[in-house]
């Protein structure tokens, strides 16, 4: 004996389900399944100052993202065209020798601790701008005794052998002086800056402008394509994101920092929302990111 299951909808419609009711039932079933798979997420934020007690971070907006903010920033970085240092150097109004030096050393900042360490004695002889800066630096400096050049350019054709001998002797003596006084290179930047030779500040400006574009692009991506929900902490440093589809997420403050005394922290913490369960994420000095690190 078979058992027949009666369908009240089918009976009410003469044995036939209308398309509208079928769709409605399907949507209802999907919504019920989705509700069963969803979960909830709450967060607490505490910041500890040096030699202090943990304090709640109040009024701090947290962003629930589908991708880490660090990963989003890398995506924004990849989308922004990189600066071409060689192209930048080609456009400079400096000698070909200085351009070649900058390309070889991949350096356009002609100041700071790295610049004098990259120089050698022959750069003084072979690069006009470096030679002029060296002359300006040593002019009138009684602490450095420079050799006297005994060769004359007018004798280059008349007495080429003697000219070359005196030329080589002078350069050998100069190399010896520079070896004894490497500190001379450390102050060449003063003369280069006075002559507006150093292109470093212009390059740094281009880098800052690009970094700004990357940063703005990263924030825009985080708050549009990857944003799931936001929540703001209360007086106890707590907040709830509410009903969230089950899955893996990141809780981030983007570029906003929480402050407590001398502590400055932001967060980009992975978390997981289980299906039909409540999850909690705790943000503290332990999993915080110190700006600049």
Short descriptors:
2 domains, 10 strands, 293 residues, disordered N terminus, four-stranded antiparallel sheet, 19% strand, 46% helix, Immunoglobulin-like, single chain, alpha+beta
| Overall SS class | alpha+beta
Portion of residues in beta strands equals 15-25%
User: What best-fitting shape do the alpha-carbon axes yield?
Assistant: elongated
Q: Name the average pLDDT.
A: 86
How large, in whole angstroms, is the Cα Rg? 35 Å
**What is the number of beta strands?**
10
How many domains? 2
* Quaternary structure classification: single chain
Helix-strand topology string: HHEEEHHHHHHHHHHHEEEEEEE
Stretches with pLDDT under 50, minimum 5 residues = 1-14, 28-35
Report the sheet with the most strands, covering strand number, pairing sense and barrel closure.
4 strands, mixed
Number of contiguous helices: 13
Helix content: 40-55%
Describe this structure in words.
The protein has 293 residues and is α+β, with helices and mostly antiparallel strands. It has two domains: 38-79 and 212-283, Immunoglobulins (Immunoglobulin-like, Sandwich), CATH 2.60.40.10; 85-199, no CATH class. Helices cover 46% and strands 19% of the residues. The chain contains 13 helices and ten strands. The strands form three sheets. Strands 1, 2, 5 and 10 form a four-stranded mixed beta sheet that branches. Strands 4-3-6-9 form a four-stranded antiparallel beta sheet. The chain has a two-stranded antiparallel ribbon with strand order 7-8. A hairpin with a 5-residue loop joins strand 1 (38-48) and strand 2. Helix 3 (69-79) packs across helix 13 and helix 8 (128-138) crosses helix 12 (188-194).
């Amino acid at each position: 004996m078979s058992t027949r299951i009666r369908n009240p909808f089918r009976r009410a419609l003469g044995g036939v389900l209308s398309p509208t009711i079928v769709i409605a039932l399907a949507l209802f079933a999907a919504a019920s399944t989705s509700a069963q798979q969803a979960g909830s997420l709450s967060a607490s934020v505490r910041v500890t100052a040096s030699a202090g007690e943990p304090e709640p971070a109040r009024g701090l907006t947290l962003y629930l993202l589908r991708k880490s903010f660090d990963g989003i920033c890398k995506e924004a970085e990849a989308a922004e065209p990189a600066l071409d240092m060689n192209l930048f150097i080609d456009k400079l109004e400096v000698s070909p020798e200085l351009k070649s030096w900058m390309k070889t050393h991949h350096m356009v900042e002609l100041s700071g601790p790295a610049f004098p360490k990259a120089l050698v004695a022959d750069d003084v002889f072979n690069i006009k701008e470096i030679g002029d800066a060296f002359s300006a630096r040593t002019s009138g400096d009684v602490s450095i005794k420079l050799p006297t050049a005994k060769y004359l350019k007018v004798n280059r054709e008349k007495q080429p052998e003697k000219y070359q001998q005196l030329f080589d002797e002078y350069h050998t003596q100069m190399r010896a002086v520079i070896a004894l006084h490497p500190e001379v290179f450390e102050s060449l930047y003063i003369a280069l800056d006075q002559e507006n030779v150093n292109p470093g500040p212009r390059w740094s400006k281009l880098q800052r402008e690009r970094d700004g574009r990357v940063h703005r692009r990263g924030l825009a991506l985080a708050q549009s394509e990857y944003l799931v929900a936001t929540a703001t902490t209360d007086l106890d440093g707590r907040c709830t994101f509410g009903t969230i589809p089950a899955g893996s997420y990141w809780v981030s403050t983007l570029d906003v920092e929480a402050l407590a005394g001398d502590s400055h922290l932001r967060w980009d913490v992975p978390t997981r929302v289980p299906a039909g369960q409540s999850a909690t994420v705790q943000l503290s000095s332990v999993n915080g990111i110190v700006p600049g690190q």
